[in-house]
Amino acid sequence: MKKGYIFIILTAIFYSTAEVAGRILAQTGSMDPFQVMFIAFLIGAIILCPLATKDIKARKLKIKADDLRYFAICGISAVTISMVLLQFAVTYTKASTAAVLYCLNAVFSIPFAYFMLKEKITKGTLISMVVSLIGAVIILNPSEIVGGLGNPRDIIGMIFALGSAVSWSFYTVYSKKRVDIYGGYVSNFFGFCFGVLALLIILVATGRPIFSGITLQNILVLLYMGIFIKAIGYICYMGAIKETSAITASMVFLIKPALATIFAIIILGESIKINMIIGIICIIAGSYVKMSSGKKENKKLMSSSKTT
């Protein structure tokens, strides 16, 4: 169990630096968001390849056309759409703001799970959704937007961050359909590959650079994103699930809003307003309620299965 919590802490640290790393690259202005995600996930796919190959052999999997369609939907929704939108978000707004709003993906997954997986919306998940959305509204500060006082770039960045959260929540729910069959490493390797392929097509079709623009200034950040955030971060997350449980491992997204904000303040020197602090507290509280509700549901299912 102690090993599991070490994995949770490591995952939280790596995941909480994602928006900061993206913001550093955005500030250099030498790379396109599509290009950044293409290179980062290409590195991640290369690292996950041997782990996925080992799992395919161990599970005796035979990848068919229908499986590839499933992987393509996962990869495009997670990599090509969600992560690119997040990179656009940190281009327009603060890394801390993007990170906190992105963590709403846990809340947005509730309606997706209801319609796609027929999961019940419990009282706990409903409270979680309402509290977290209140936090998002506080961060967005609609009074400033209506009064024309808000920075237009911040507003655009926030919209991108929310779009990223919605797309990632769709991926999270959709991937649950077959993740038990393939395992996490196989699902994510193929998802990364299809996401990278879609990004390559976009880069070529729109005449964007693929590898040009890489400098000594940004190569280390790109390597960090690909190796530590996309690959090792995910490996640690899988380790956390294996050593504890999926619900306990989701503590990562309970820690991330506060930790990502701290990193943004220390590394980027970002300032934080009182509405941001209140919003973070609401989103953390909402995530906690959702996690607690999930634990209770699991206990009920376990006790009912024992009696039958």
UniProtKB/TrEMBL annotation:
The keyword Transcription does not apply. Residues 3-140, 156-289 form the EamA domain. InterPro entries: AA-Vitamin_Transporters, EamA_dom, EmrE-like. Pfam families: EamA. Coiled coil: none annotated. Belongs to the EamA transporter family. It comes from Clostridium luticellarii. The chain crosses the membrane at residues 36-56, 68-90, 96-117, 124-143, 155-174, 186-207, 219-240, 247-268, 274-291. GO terms for cellular component: membrane. This is Putative DMT superfamily transporter inner membrane protein. It is found in: Membrane. It is a multi-pass membrane protein. The keyword Membrane applies. It comes from the Bacteria. Keywords: Membrane, Transmembrane, Transmembrane helix. Its main location: membrane. PANTHER family: EAMA DOMAIN-CONTAINING PROTEIN, INNER MEMBRANE TRANSPORTER. SUPFAM superfamilies: Multidrug resistance efflux transporter EmrE.
